[in-house]
Amino acid sequence: MSVTVRVPAKVNVQLAVGAARPDGFHDLANVFLAVGLHDEVTATPSAGGLRITCEGPDAAQVPLDRTNLAARAALALAERYGRPADVHLHIAKDIPVAGGMAGGSADGAAALLACDALWGTRAPRAELLDICAELGSDVPFSLVGGAALGTGRGERLTPLEVGGTFHWVFAMAHRGLSTPAVFGEFDRLGEGTDIPEPVASQDLLDALAKGDPDALAAAVSNDLQPAALSLFPDLAGTLAAGRAAGALAALVSGSGPTTAFLVRDAEAADRVAGALRTSGTCRSARTAPGPVPGATVLTDRPA
Ligand code: ATP
To answer: What does the pLDDT read at residue 300?
Structure first.
């Protein structure tokens, strides 16, 4: 028996970041959109305890020990249900690693759902979401998918209505950026300034609800973008190349360094992706629609 779960990447169409709290975290108003770049996690029983393997272009950068979020998810579920975490988790990785698209979080949510199905634990949805929130701020959204507003550290989710499909292009960078390093740079750049409380933009929520790409393009924002650009100045060239190719909006995805381009339709997506590929400013460019569903069991079959 094995279970495969497919899980999407995310882009933050708004990422409003408050001042650092005493515990070091930041309050966020984080509008997540799940987009059609996916990892797949397959869970199979393993006699020799927990084992992680990974395939894909970025596989060499993925830890295969217990720091992998997929491993942590399996261990957390096993502990709650008092059972051994004797499972082999294979990650087919298509989401860029350390790219600001919640790839690790996606694998955590996928592994949790896969182990729940494989082991027949049938944990209630609310409990799965609790475990996700313990694993990391972006993990609950990977389970839920669609579009949602995240508050607190980003883990308290309110689902959002979306009135249509938005078309995106993502440009992958030649190297990764560490999320804690980007938040550190945000703190450094903001020293001595008054950082406002993070709030969701009503214009942005309206644009999502209407499915209006022009209105969404006018409303997207990312407070981490100056910090990501400060640590990775070449990203400015990628953003400029996408804008020159006709993107309606260009922004850093989350903590970066993946850059996200909102375009009018699928045809424009292919055109902008082609221009980015030949611009020499990125490693690769991919098109993806959003919103898409969250972590979903694909196969549940005898091995
Ligand atoms: P976010 O958008 O949530 O800030 P990210 O997409 O920028 O995250 P990830 O791909 O999640 O970044 O990787 C960040 C780090 O997490 C990696 O450098 C790696 O060491 C570690 N990691 C743990 N588990 C995984 C996993 N399953 N896949 C990728 N990286 C993982």
So the answer is: 62
